[in-house]
Write a structure and sequence with these properties.
alpha/beta; 9 helices; globular; 7 strands
């Protein structure tokens, strides 16, 4: 998560206690490996909202111990890639991208780091090609609405079937300085209605509202500040009466 995201709003939610792991266990009933990895971190800084930890595990656990191709948008202080390396294991193909040239110093440590903008389709295509494809995208980048949309438009079409696309820190969707606003058309949560319409095209017959994304989404999940889009084979719906 970018530390420069509306400091006043962020600071009021800062955890004031001493036991990070205990807070997550007590509130969310989660005590998995990712909690230990996050809460016991002594290396590069990793900054996460506490409720994200069980959400990550819910969606990412099936990729542990596999050669998952995982792309994280936003490297920041480098701690997040190290967390994912320990969580997914040595076989994972981990890439992080960031616009800050200083993040290049993390390249080759827990994963590969490439410097470029998340709203540059050519740059993103090059990274995905270098990865040999992508199974999971975690957008923890600028959190600016236009950038979030640009990354989704570029990356979701090349996401592997069976893959996941997670966008986090979407509280910024309600902040004007990030291109959003409560009830505003630019708020990225409004795009979910378009995606849902595209998922149900067989029943209404209208043109796709988000081509390249909506028709290929098999599931939509919304959590506090997080959207998860599942990509899978989508078939024309059929029904049967049996018995």
């Amino acid at each position: 998560m970018t530390l420069a995201t509306r400091p006043g709003a962020i600071r009021q939610h800062a955890f004031r206690g001493a036991d990070v792991a205990g807070d997550i266990r007590q509130k969310y009933g989660f005590d998995g490996d990712l909690l230990r990895i996050f809460a016991a971190n002594k290396g590069e800084v990793v900054h996460k909202w506490h409720h994200y930890i069980p959400i990550y595990d819910r969606y990412f656990a099936r990729y542990r111990g596999t050669p998952v191709r995982f792309l994280e948008i936003g490297v920041s202080k480098g701690g997040s890639l190290r967390m994912w390396r320990e969580y997914f294991g040595p076989d994972a193909v981990l890439f992080g991208i960031d616009i800050d040239p200083d993040c290049a110093r993390f390249d080759g440590q827990a994963g590969q780091v490439r410097i470029g903008s998340q709203d540059d389709p050519a740059f993103l295509a090059g990274v995905v090609a270098e990865m040999g494809g992508v199974d999971v995208v975690l957008d923890d980048g600028s959190h600016v609405m236009a950038h979030v949309r640009a990354s989704l438009a570029a990356l979701f079409p090349v996401l592997a079937t069976g893959g996941l696309y997670m966008i986090e820190d979407l509280h910024t969707a309600y902040w004007k300085n990030w291109g959003g606003g409560y009830g505003m058309p630019a708020n990225v949560f409004g795009d979910l209605a378009k995606i849902i319409d595209d998922m149900h095209r067989p029943y209404h017959g209208h043109a796709d509202r988000m081509p390249g994304v909506g028709p290929f989404v098999s599931g939509v999940h919304v959590h506090d500040s997080i959207i998860v889009l599942e990509k899978d084979a989508v078939f024309a719906p059929v029904h049967s009466r049996v018995g």
